[in-house]
Amino acid sequence: MKGSVHNFLQHRFANQAGLWYPVVSVYYLTYACNFRCPYFSDGSGQPYHAIKNTAPKGDEVVEILRSIRKFCENLVITGGEPLLHGDVEQVLRALPAMKFDHTILTTNGERLPPFLPAMQESLSELVISLDTLNAERADRNFGRGEGMLRKILDNLEEARTLPKRRFDIVISAVVTPDNLEELYALSEFCWERGLKLAACPQLQGVKVHAELHENEAYRRFFDHLLAAKRKGRPVQGTIRYLECMRDLQRFDCHPFTMLVVSPQGDVFYPCLEIGHHVGKIQEVDDLHALRRAGEERFGPQPQCGNQCHSACALGFSKALEAPMHELVAEGYWAAREKWAMWRGRS
């Protein structure tokens, strides 16, 4: 925690060029994915399942994570679908010894049950992607045949009711032009079970889907989330964050609050979306020197347009704009949400 606070303060009060102080690291365990969700792609718009996948074996992954830990206290393991990695159990079992403050894993939930014991020992948060309770639409998006949504919901319930569960569960929903009216049922489904809901707009590449701009149904759904947040229901993000998502406001990005790493250990400069590889994390002793090398090869951090309305990019932007406001507000709402989530476990 001490290192994360130090790094955050560096961005808030110094923010010097040539320095890299990550608050969270995102590691892509594998690009492989067994689903075919139409909006699941990298910053260039390429679907993850179409990216050549050469994920390293478990021992090498563990070394990559140890290298990440030298620079960062908070970790997100994502993909692709991380649970497709052949050595994911080994990776999960190795995490506690690294002593990350906060460890998150994202998944589509299809292969969840066998890994729950290892997750119990290693995760602070499990994020499951779910955009609708409409079985026909969900099964069509997954591309795995009829009955997949039912399987995922059963797996989610097994995770939710895990005895003495130590990790929180977050449902991550992509807001698309097609599922807007279905998200209300999903939100109630989450809150009835004490699960936090995180919602972000569909991106096409790095831009919000054109049909969500000036879309009153989109705004109404985020107003719904804002009202729920004010009632203490578990909703990801602060009030200011949700308002920015609703209005699709332009915001200042701070990519060096993050350290994003490919399956093989390649560090993305300045961010995943722009996607330059600037070096291997396993070979890095000085992250600031790596940023300076990136600036020499690819230029300084660009000033992007109105784009990348993702949880991390926007979340850090709002926090750095008004840290005390966000800290006090989030502490208040988090306490109410924790109570709601605790009640959902009992």
Brief write-up:
This protein is of the alpha/beta class. 42% of the residues lie in helices and 16% in strands. α8 packs antiparallel against α9.
SSE topology sketch:
Blueprint: H1 2-14, E1 24-30, H2 58-69, E2 74-79, H3 88-98, E3 102-107, H4 116-122, E4 125-129, H5 135-142, H6 148-160, E5 168-175, H7 183-192, E6 196-201, E7 203-204, E8 207-208, H8 216-230, H9 239-247, E9 258-261, E10 266-269, E11 276-280, H10 287-298, H11 311-321, H12 323-345
Parallel strand pairs: 1-2, 1-9, 2-3, 3-4, 4-5, 5-6
Antiparallel strand pairs: 7-8, 10-11
Helix pairs in contact: 2-3, 3-4, 8-9, 11-12
Describe this structure in words.
The chain contains 12 helices and 11 strands. 42% of the residues lie in helices and 16% in strands. The two termini are 29 Å apart. Helix 2 runs parallel beside helix 3 (88-98) and helix 8 runs antiparallel to helix 9 (239-247). The strands form 3 sheets. It has a 7-stranded parallel sheet, with helices on one face. The chain has a two-stranded antiparallel sheet with strand order 7-8. It is globular and about 50 Å long. The protein has helices at residues 2-14, 58-69, 88-98, 116-122, 135-142, 148-160, 183-192, 216-230, 239-247, 287-298, 311-321, 323-345; strands at residues 24-30, 74-79, 102-107, 125-129, 168-175, 196-201, 203-204, 207-208, 258-261, 266-269, 276-280. It has one domain (2-345): Aldolase class I (TIM Barrel, Alpha-Beta Barrel), CATH 3.20.20.70. With 346 residues, it is an alpha/beta fold.
